[in-house]
Amino acid sequence: MAELPLDDGTLWYESRGDGRPLVFIHGGWMNGEAWAPQVERFADEYEVITFDVRGHGKTGATAVDRYTIDLFADDLEALLAHLDRDEAPVLCGLSLGSMVVQEFVDRHPDRAAGAILGGAVRSMPPVELPPGTKPFVSPMPALATTLSLSGPATTFRTMLSSIRATTGEEWLTVDPDVRSQAMDAVRQVERREFRKVFGALYRYEPTDLSHVETPTLIVHGEQEAPLVKRQGRRLADEIERGDLLEFDESGHLVNLDRPNSFNHAAETFLERTAT
What we know:
By secondary structure, the chain is α/β, with parallel strands linked by helices. It has one domain (2-273): Alpha/Beta hydrolase fold, catalytic domain (Rossmann fold), CATH 3.40.50.1820. 43% of the residues lie in helices and 16% in strands. It contains ten helices and eight strands. The chain has helices at 36-42, 69-83, 96-107, 140-150, 152-167, 176-187, 191-203, 226-238, 254-257, 259-273; strands at residues 2-6, 9-16, 21-25, 47-51, 90-94, 114-118, 216-221, 242-247. The chain has an eight-stranded mixed sheet, with helices on both faces. α1 (36-42) packs across α10, α2 (69-83) packs across α3 (96-107) and α4 (140-150) packs antiparallel against α7 (191-203). It is globular.
């Protein structure tokens, strides 16, 4: 992996292959390895770029006290500027990464050649709360207590269980091996970083993306949480060139549950958006 110095830390990224750049942004409390099936599939034809978002993987902790999706999008911009490729990239985001991509295309409606959003979520929780109420119903104090007593892995399991109790589904993934991979990534995250990442997710307020010109493919699993799927449908309707796919036998981590189907859909999308 390579390093990109930041004002308050170091961003670790990896680039494989040559050609049109594909940039993959992982989900919360995971790391760039979450895109391994896509890296293997596309590195022979494209330049495939993955990076570990602040608080995750090799990038790990940075000095700022609070993370935001805006900050993660700033880091994506810094990485693209550092790489300085001639061709516009296709941005692929999973869960938290989908928020980062949404923020980027909101800022730059025509700078990405395309966007692929897996497990696309617009807010956490995935429901609309009355304006100004989030600070008053914040789960942050309870989260901080659970983290201090139990650590990130147990806190993450508790979060999964609470969502499963309302959906009745193993919504994160239908594959025990994928679940194990996700838990291994969570165990690498420090307590303080886990809290900062959660805060970034919780505080993010989605914006209107109807002005976005970027061709966008949204991919959900059939076992995805219903409220998240509803957000994905609304997102596809809002973006002028937005399309939606749903794969059976897959959950939130749809690119890992159904890697071949996800890769085929991505390949078709990339062919359609080639200049």
